[in-house]
Amino acid sequence: MDNIRSSGNIARNRLRYMLLNDRISCTADTLSMIKKDIYRVLSNYMDIDENIELTFEQGSIPSSSYLNAKIHIRKTVR
After folding, report:
1. Angle at CA 57, nearest 5°, toward 54 and 61?
2. CA 61 – CA 63 distance, rounded (Å)
3. Which of 9, 14, 54, 60 has the fewest CB atoms within 10 Å, i.e. the most exposed one?
4. Residue 13: pLDDT band by 50, 70, 90 thresholds?
């Protein structure tokens, strides 16, 4: 039963992510360019991992969306 619930939650979250992606019209190419730009800018100030995870989330207000970035910071550059 737990597998069904977790599979259902995974499918629901994937659908939510796809719908949000479609709503903001962000292609995979655009997302890749955003990741590269974030890496280029932040690497001027910090030693960061190149593998940046970006996710889109819908805010509490239906028309608001957020871009969350998960970035591993190794150390700051001085």
Report:
1. 150
2. 6
3. 60
4. confident
| 66-5-11 Cα angle (round to 5) | 45
Q: Where in the sequence is the domain holding 58, given as residue range(s)?
A: 2-76
What is the identity of the amino acid at 8? G
Amino acid at 29: D
pLDDT tens digits, 24-55: 777 778 888 989 999 999 999 999 999 999 88
Q: Are 31 and 53 in contact (CB under 8 A)?
A: no
Per-residue tokens: 78: 């001085």
Beta carbons of 8 and 16 less than 8 angstroms apart:
no
In the chain, the number of structural domains is 1
